From TrEMBL:
Residue span, HTH LytTR-type domain: 147-220
Modified residues (4-aspartylphosphate): 55
Gene3D superfamilies in UniProt: 3.40.50.2300, LytTr DNA-binding domain
Organism per entry: Cyclobacterium marinum (strain ATCC 25205 / DSM 745 / LMG 13164 / NCIMB 1802)
Residue runs in coiled coils: none
Designated name of the protein: Two component transcriptional regulator, LytTR family
InterPro entries per UniProt: CheY-like_superfamily, LytR-like, LytTR_DNA-bd_dom, Sig_transdc_resp-reg_receiver
Keyword set includes Secreted: no
Length: 254
């Protein structure tokens, strides 16, 4: 883990480096910078570290000047003898605030906090990437242009583009069209999902596959779900589960 220390007292900087290396096996302290000026110059010439430990009152000003004048996206653990800067610290990528003299147990807790936050956000990023990959894979398949539906004793070919949504209830699959008609189809929703254009259609739930062209609006719903309203009345509400929300929004915006 690449770490940068900003500390104007040489002895305190070395002591902090020792504690960090003791608590993080993979720690690589890139530098110990003593001033606002030296830190600004360092950030101009180097890539960002993974974590910054920073004092606040430096020899030539407050370290907040560094973070106001440089785009810092990595987390910062502030180490200072003063507690009056806590609010501003947490407004500047700060994830923790340690008072000097630094207690090693509290330092260890701060490092654990960083590790948990890092793990969480990496997990969220992985989920987003996975959702985008699935949407891209789906978009690449053009899907069928015509399907066969049943009406009374007839088998009728209809254009997939005219289908607003498919609805499943008690094992029966119904097809609702833009002409206001309803037909039956002898396929499951899973079978239809594999045959339809995944750019045009989305399996919203175990009851619905919807055409993007029929979506009127999307609203927040209980339990962090989404309520999809379409251009015609539906047999029941079309609800996107919390788990599928990200994938649905990526699909809708693609």
């Amino acid at each position: 883990m690449k770490i940068l220390i900003i500390e104007d007292e040489a002895k305190a900087g070395k002591a902090l480096k020792t504690m960090i290396e003791k608590n993080i096996n993979s720690a690589e302290v890139l530098d110990i910078l003593p001033s606002v000026k030296s830190a600004l110059k360092w950030f101009e010439e180097h890539r960002l570290p993974e974590l910054i430990f920073s004092d606040i009152q430096l020899s030539d000003g407050l370290s907040f000047e560094i973070f106001r004048n440089t785009e810092i996206t990595c987390p910062i653990i502030f180490c200072t003898a003063y507690d009056e800067y806590a609010i501003e610290a947490f407004n500047t990528n700060g994830i923790d605030y340690l008072l000097k003299p630094i207690d090693e147990d509290k330092l260890s807790l701060s490092i654990d906090k960083y590790a948990k936050l890092k793990s969480y956000f990496e997990g969220e990023e992985a989920k987003q990437k996975e959702a985008l990959i699935k949407v891209e894979e789906q978009i690449s398949y053009p899907g069928k242009s015509t399907i066969l539906v049943y009406f009374q004793d007839k088998i009728i070919p209809i254009k997939v583009a005219d289908v607003l949504f498919f609805y499943a209830k008690a094992g029966i699959i119904k097809v609702y069209t833009s002409a206001g008609k309803m037909y039956h189809i002898n396929k499951t929703l899973d079978e239809l999902s594999s045959e339809l254009s995944s750019y045009q259609f989305f399996k919203a739930s175990r009851q619905f596959i919807i055409n993007r062209e029929c979506i009127h609006s999307v609203e927040q719903y209980f339990g962090r779900r989404l309520y999809v309203k379409v251009n015609i009345e539906t047999p029941e509400k079309i609800l996107i589960s919390k788990v599928s929300t990200s994938m649905f929004l990526n699909w809708l915006s693609s």
